[in-house]
Structures are given as structure tokens and as C-alpha cells.
Amino acid sequence: MKMDDTSDSLDLLDLKSGEINFKGQYAGFASRFLAFMIDFLILSVVVMITGLLVSQLVQISVFFLNLFFSINFEVPENFEFLLYVITLVAVYAIYYLFFWSFIGTTIGGIIMGIRMVSVRGVKPSFYRCVIRFCMEFVLLPLLVIGSIWIFISPRRQAWYDKVAGIFVIYDWKARPEERFWKRPKTVKYLEGKTNG
To answer: Are 113 and 32 in contact (CB under 8 A)?
Structure first.
């Protein structure tokens, strides 16, 4: 599947099955936000557990250092906060870069049925994933401001998606509900094609 830069959306009609569904359509803000929140909850638990383990490891190391070398070494005042930040960035980087580059989505994305693809319609490269991660999480203001662009972009791309050359699409077949569809005439036309 190759993304066509001249079209604003992909066809809703599945030519193989003759059904109308959202598979391959650009994912909207709600689905992406819920996937993000699922990942956030998972990572919050992982960061908390990892942070406690690392903190305990440091305390044990300091204890044995003082015991065997008879020195009075103390952990610097802001060291625990610095350690927490390092742990936070490391956990987030490993989680997102692994899942994005090897699977094309995250656990939250799997649950919500969305995934990332490059312009050629394939899984994004590790290089593109690194760019997206840096734009989305390292430059935190872009996470909020850039996400607003999803409402404006016809391809539902945030700023960090555009910079990395990535599209977020639906990965499961879901029939559109005509009552809530913005362009019901399009749905009726496509249904006519399937029945005709």
C-alpha cells in the first residue's frame, strides 16, 4: 500500500470483500489519544517499578562502598531526581522505539486497532521512529501543540508525524456508522457500488 500524496483520504471500499470499513483509513484524534493513554498507564507502572529497583540498587551499592572502602560516601541531594528522569527517558525510549520499529504500533495501538506506516505504506524505519520520538517526547511542547494539527490535517498527521514522514492508520475492519459519518452521501454511494 502506497500513500498517495494527491488524495486526502483512502477509499472506504474494500474491493476484495465488497464491504465498507475503516481499515487503512487515517486514524483520528480520539483513537490515537486513547492508545496514548493506555501506553501511558502501562509505562507509569513500569517506570515506578524500575525506578524503585534502580533506587534500591544505588542504596545497596553505596552501603557496600562505604563498608568495604571505609569511606563516608553520601548520595547527592538531587541524584534521585536525576536518576528518575534518566529512568523515565530510558523506559519510554526502549518501549516506543522497540514497538514502533519492530511492530509498527504499541500495546495501546494494538488495543485501539491503529498502527504507523511510512509513505510507502510499510512499517516505519528505526531512523523515522527516532525522529518521531525526539519530536514527540523530547520536545514536550510539540506533543501538545503538534497534536492539535491532527484536527486540521486531512491525513490526520500531527507535526511530529509530518517531520518523520509517518502516517497513523486503522488496522482493523470497522464499519462506519452512517448517522455519525461526516459525508453520508459518500457512504451511500459506496454502498451502492457494493450492491450494484
So the answer is: no
Q: For 86-101, give the DSSP string.
A: HHHHHHHHHHHHHHHH
Give the span between the Cα atoms of 63 and 135, in whole angstroms: 40
Measured between alpha carbons, how far is 17 from 128 in angstroms, rounded to an integer?
33
CB 29 within 8 A of CB 152: no
The ranges assigned to domains in the chain are 29-124+170-195
Does the pTM surpass 0.85? The reply is: no
Model pLDDT, residue 142? 66
- CB neighbours of residue 53 within 10 Å: 11
- DSSP-derived 3-state class of residue 46: helix
pLDDT, residue 168, reads 92
Q: What is the dihedral of CA 107, 30, 171, 45, to 10 degrees?
A: 0
Q: Which residues contact 133 (CB under 8 A, 6 or more apart)?
A: 92, 93, 96, 97, 100
178 pLDDT higher than 60: no
Joined grid coordinates for residue 153: 490535517
For cell 483520504, name the residue: 9
For the segment 79-119, what is each residue's pLDDT rounded down to a tens digit? 778 888 888 899 999 999 999 999 999 999 999 999 999 88
**Region for 18 from its dihedrals, namely left if φ exceeds 0, alpha if ψ lies in -120 to 50, beta otherwise:** left
